[in-house]
Amino acid sequence: MASGAAFFDLDRTLVAGSSALALAGQFHRRGLLSRRELFLAAAWQLVFTRYGASPVQAERMARRGLERLRGLRVVELHELVISSLTPALKPRLYREGFDLVERHRTRGERLYLVSATLEEVVSTLASELGFDGALGTTAEIIDGRYTGRVRFSCLGKDKLDAVRRLAETNHIDLAHSTAYSDSSTDLPFLEAVGKPVAVNPDRWLRAIARERGWPVLEFRTTLS
């Protein structure tokens, strides 16, 4: 018999700002980003944390991030993400979001992290937090190195399709599931579940949530 689950977006929902941009310092230390690029990443992190991103901006961010990976070996990125968990990613987790995850877990619900962030980041963090699975953007890989091109973008309608496939495979009833997101780009994903919740919503999603009577949560306190 199918049961419900809890689906969490990552950036500005469980993590303050962008998880990908939080890795900029590690990239710089390994010589993968210049000082100027590090400064620009920090500036965009401030803007994104406060205001979010439009669908066009979100797609542009994802594309530029993948372009920076061109030529990098998969094992190198994996090592970088693992080494960044404690200093860069976990301190940015919202305490309120972490507590919410635990409440769903206590009720026996399955937990999934679903994000447009690169799958290597999403799955590593999901494993660290004890989630049951994760979906993220996947990059093209040839001969063990990133080409800088997208293979699957976990955004908009594509994100919805991926969630539906996951639900079918794992016998999840979306009508009895909860989804949390900050972004209007996730509207198809939010509309697919019985209990959509806007977390730190951008202005577009805030207006939609107000119109439809969806709950709105504001997370402010991080684990750092």
3D structure, described in words:
With 224 residues, the protein is α/β, with parallel strands linked by helices. The protein has a single domain (5-217), classed as HAD superfamily/HAD-like (Rossmann fold). Helices cover 48% and strands 19% of the residues. It has ten helices and seven strands. It has helices at residues 19-22, 24-29, 35-51, 55-68, 74-89, 95-106, 119-128, 156-169, 187-191, 203-212; strands at residues 5-8, 110-118, 133-142, 145-152, 178-181, 195-199, 216-217. The protein has a seven-stranded mixed β-sheet. Helix 5 crosses helix 7 (119-128). The longest helix has 17 residues, at 35-51. The relative contact order is 0.19. The model is unreliable at 38-51 (pLDDT under 50).
Instruction: Using the alpha-carbon principal axes, give the shape.
Output: globular
The percentage helix is 40-55%
Topology as a string of helices (H) and strands (E) = EHHHHHHEHEEHEHEHE
Instruction: Give start-end ranges of low-pLDDT stretches.
Output: 38-51
